[in-house]
Design brief:
Length: 550
């Protein structure tokens, strides 16, 4: 097998990239010292998180000059995400740290006017050179494919600027802003998107690069793209995982978080078993799921570092599933069974190394938010959210919220933020607030969901996974009031969760709320609908979704 050299110099999920390279028929060798770069033929530079952190790590490790030399010598080079950004002169993210300066442009932060930042999800990369309706494609980057992006800073696209210097460019649009999605010139190919997380479209570009299929294929999109770019509506499949009564890890699903069968008395009720985690994840990937989430729902009982089966699930899944994987459950500071303290950052690192792209924090985020308010809205720099987002970037930290409705007669009856609901309770109360819970809904806290969102955003969370205990497993549709209320308070993306029962519910949530993504569980596990059916339904209703690519 031909060899590709991969630089693992900074925190991030490089396992997925290695898996993707192997999937397209190449062998990966890791760069362990600057000398390895001098001896390499094909070099890939990945990177996630902060521009400054990545470039400083490269500089301190003595890698910058060998990379520059590799590029100048004409050998194939590919940069991914911050690996693309490092080719530019600098970034507003860390103004004092210079990039390699191969391109004299700077990265700027996306404006959050009317849109969530970070930019997370599936977007286009349209080649900017066109003859008639045909696009001049490079390295298999196709005008009607969608690619997975996750970043807050980008190179603004100014038509003609890079092209004048001989670069091929593919551009994307986020809100009103156009930015550089991919570039190529000579031996260099670099993408802002993550090809290793972009399903078959992404594997296709890695394959094209490794086969040196640079230029120039003219392609007319198979159909006229109704919109000129922008994020697609993400459909996410969620797998709640726990040990069943025989000790095997299974995918389960609760009603209002009760995952045991309805028949029988309490102790004898069995844990619902809806399938095997790795198999179901692969099935949903093949059906076109845009992301997969695993939640280890009994993690509060165990030390996750000893939870080898969960890590094994991630490792095996990341070999066949090339869309983002999120893992939640038990991400917090721990004391191991032998008394050794283990930080949340170390726990997260184990998950990232096993194939996770994001980690999701539930209970610990509530505790951290409580401390934030006790300290007068101050951050400490030591919470799990802060330490993990500092090391891996905000985009890698999801906060999973498990709220439930608390009805009151009038807003003055509570200190918490209330909404007037169209669904009064049996007592006729028509105001409610959303109370945060921990340990999978087992304990309620004196904190509302808006307070939580504000606090975790200040700490550096990149996304909110918004469950709803009242709606969970009901199949009656999402809690649109909750989602609208949280979206009004959040600048970061929100994933709507709990209550999906049919494709119409996804239409409702995208139509009636500005949610960034929607998640389903039970309806997919029970085989009532496939992810593909939901997407086809949404596509038929005029929503912009990522189509399945064979
Ligand atoms: O607190 O950091 O250890 O994380 C524990 C994680 O496990 C949290 O993300 C919490 O939401 C989750 N969790 C804990 N107990 C349960 C349970 O069900 N007993 N599952 C649980 C939460 C909610 C969704 C579910 C949607 C969609 N599951 O992920 O998949 O409600 O379901 P539906 O479409 O079928 O309605 P920590």
């Amino acid at each position: 097998m031909p060899v590709v050299h991969l630089l693992d110099y900074v925190a991030g999920n490089v396992r997925s990239l290695a898996n993707a390279i192997q999937k397209v028929g190449y062998q990966v060798e890791w760069i362990k010292s600057p000398d390895d770069i001098r001896n390499s033929e094909v070099l890939i530079l990945p990177g996630v998180g902060h521009f400054g952190h990545c470039v400083s790590q490269l500089s301190e490790g003595g890698y910058l000059e060998p990379i520059r030399h590799h590029i100048e010598s004409g050998k194939p080079f590919m940069g991914i995400c911050v690996g693309l950004q490092a080719l530019f002169s600098g970034s507003d993210e860390d103004p004092n740290i210079p990039g390699l300066g191969l391109l004299q442009l700077r990265l700027q932060k996306f404006s959050n006017k009317g849109k969530s930042v970070p930019h997370i999800g599936w977007n286009s990369a349209k080649p900017t050179s066109q003859i008639g309706s045909a696009y001049e494609c490079f390295y298999g980057v196709r005008p009607d494919s969608k690619y997975y992006y996750v970043h807050s800073y980008s190179v603004p696209y100014i038509p003609g600027t890079l092209e004048k210097e001989g670069w091929s460019v593919a551009a994307a649009t986020y809100g009103e802003e156009m930015f550089v999605g991919a570039i190529a010139r000579g031996n260099i190919f670099a993408t802002q998107f993550h090809p290793e997380k972009s399903g078959r479209a992404g594997l296709h570009t890695i394959h094209a690069f490794l086969n040196s299929q640079m230029l120039r294929v003219f392609e007319t999109p198979s159909q006229v793209c109704r919109d000129c770019g922008g994020l697609t509506k993400r459909i996410i499949a969620c797998l709640d995982v726990r040990a069943n009564d025989h000790g095997d890890l299974v995918v389960t699903k609760g009603d209002q978080y009760d995952v045991r069968e309805k028949n029988g008395v309490d102790a004898s009720r069995k844990v619902r078993n809806l399938g095997k985690p790795v198999e179901l994840a692969k099935r949903y990937y093949e059906q076109g799921a845009d992301e997969i989430v695993f939640l280890n729902i009994t993690s509060f009982r165990d030390c996750p570092l000893k939870d080898v089966p969960m890590l094994e699930i991630l490792r095996r899944t990341s070999e066949t599933v090339f869309v983002p994987l999120t893992i939640g459950g038990g991400i917090r500071d721990l004391i191991d069974k032998d008394g050794t303290p283990i930080s949340a950052l170390e726990v997260a690192t184990v998950y990232f190394k096993s194939g996770a792209d994001k980690i999701s924090i539930g209970s610990d985020a509530v505790t951290a938010a409580e401390q934030y308010y006790e300290a007068g809205e101050k951050v400490f720099g030591t919470t799990a959210i802060e330490t993990i987002s500092n090391a891996y970037g905000n985009q890698a930290v999801v906060v999973s919220v498990d709220p439930k409705r608390i009805y009151v007669n009038a807003p003055d009856d509570t200190t918490h933020h209330t909404i007037k609901t169209a669904y009064p309770n049996a007592e006729g109360q028509s105001h409610c607030w959303y109370q945060c819970t921990i340990k999978g809904g087992r304990e309620s806290r004196d904190l509302d969901v808006r307070q939580l969102v504000k606090a975790v955003e200040a700490m550096g969370a990149g996304e909110i996974l918004l469950n709803c205990i009242d709606k969970d497993g009901s199949g009656s549709g999402f809690d649109l009031e909750l989602i609208n209320d949280v979206k009004a308070a959040a600048n970061i993306p929100v994933i709507a969760s709990s209550g999906a029962g049919k494709p119409l519910h996804f239409e409702e949530v995208f139509e009636k709320t500005p949610t960034d993504a929607a998640l389903g569980a039970g309806m997919f596990h029970r085989g009532e609908y496939t992810v593909q059916e939901v997407k086809e339904y949404l596509g038929g209703k005029g929503f912009f979704i990522r189509k399945f690519e064979a």
